[in-house]
Structures are given as structure tokens and as C-alpha cells.
TrEMBL record:
The lineage of its organism: Bacteria, Bacillati, Bacillota, Clostridia, Eubacteriales. InterPro entries: MoaC, MoaC_bact/euk, MoaC_sf, MoCo_biosynth_MoaA/MoaC, Mopterin_CF_biosynth-C_dom. Pathway: Cofactor biosynthesis; molybdopterin biosynthesis. It catalyses: (8S)-3',8-cyclo-7,8-dihydroguanosine 5'-triphosphate = cyclic pyranopterin phosphate + diphosphate. SUPFAM superfamilies: Molybdenum cofactor biosynthesis protein C, MoaC. Its EC number is 4.6.1.17. This is Cyclic pyranopterin monophosphate synthase. It comes from Clostridium pasteurianum BC1. The keyword Lyase applies. Substrate binds at residues 74-76, 112-113. It holds the Pfam family MoaC. Catalyzes the conversion of (8S)-3',8-cyclo-7,8-dihydroguanosine 5'-triphosphate to cyclic pyranopterin monophosphate (cPMP). It comes from the Bacteria.
Length: 158
């Protein structure tokens, strides 16, 4: 087996995507952060002392998507043409569900950017609520869909 991210000296390298065709690419990622019911209620009411939790988490997620190549070593810097993050407050399971959709036209996909965005949004929620709920759990961050490029369409079956 030949490793794509290892050079002739056995060291890490960034894969050359220069010969790849530019295509429209999209990725959708979901994740959740579980918490106490009281914490979820305070997020909904907007009474967390640090401010509007979901507004800050949304901005953090978008910023993270744009900075992915700075923190993931073999990830190419790409031009993101769109990034949207949405939240669903689930009072049955006491969690916030986070969904990120990213888009680009380029030679490599945007799933790492969407994964990073959901992770940063969840971490921001944790950071803003930790004073009242240190037991929060971030779970189930996963690629739901991707399209574009040589590998085509992927849709997670759940």
C-alpha cells in the first residue's frame, strides 16, 4: 500500500491537487452537545452571563471553517464560497444539535471545514456555559453528506 501523504523520505507531505479538476463541492456535518436541562433553558432564554451563546457559537464555527488549514496539518487552504450553521434545541434529550453546510468550487473538498466548524461551535457552547454545567458532553460529530470531486456523492445512512 502506498501512502499519499508520505514523501520518499518517509515524512509527511501535503498531496499535490494541482492536476485535479475544479468542481462544485459541498459538505454537511452534524454534531451535538448534551447538557443539563437548566443549561439548555438558559440558552433558549438568553440568560447565560457570557451573552448570546448560539450567536457566538455560529460566528466561532464560521471562523473555524475559514481557518481549518491552519490547524489540520495536511488540509489545503481553500476558498469557501459558503458556510451556514444552524442549531436545534432538543428538550427531550437535553442537547443542542449543530448542523454545518459548507460549499466551495475547487480541487479539494470542504468536509474538513464543516467538521471543524461543528467542533468549534460545540466547544464555544461549552466554553460559554461551563460556569454552570461542567458535565456537558460533545458527541456524534459526523459527515452526513458530501458531493463533488472524483469520489462523487456520499450520504450517511442512519
Amino acid at each position: 500500500m502506498e501512502f499519499t501523504h508520505i514523501n520518499d523520505e518517509g515524512r509527511a507531505k501535503m498531496v499535490d491537487v494541482g492536476a485535479k479538476a475544479e468542481t462544485e463541492r459541498e459538505a454537511v456535518v452534524k454534531g451535538s452537545i448534551y447538557m443539563k436541562r437548566e443549561t439548555l433553558e438558559k440558552i433558549k432564554e438568553g440568560t447565560i452571563k457570557k451573552g448570546d451563546v448560539l450567536a457566538v457559537a455560529q460566528v466561532a464555527g464560521i471562523m473555524a471553517a475559514k481557518s481549518t488549514s491552519s490547524i489540520i496539518p495536511m488540509c489545503h487552504p481553500i476558498f469557501i464560497t459558503g458556510c451556514d450553521i444552524s442549531f436545534n434545541l432538543d428538550f427531550e434529550e437535553n442537547k443542542v444539535d449543530i448542523t454545518c453546510s459548507t460549499k466551495t468550487v475547487g480541487k479539494t473538498g470542504v468536509e474538513m471545514e464543516a467538521l471543524t466548524a461543528v467542533s468549534a461551535a460545540a466547544l464555544t457552547i461549552y466554553d460559554m456555559c461551563k460556569a454552570i454545567d461542567r458535565g456537558m458532553v460533545i458527541k456524534d460529530i459526523r459527515l452526513m453528506e458530501k458531493s463533488g470531486g472524483k469520489s462523487g456523492v456520499y450520504i450517511r445512512e442512519e
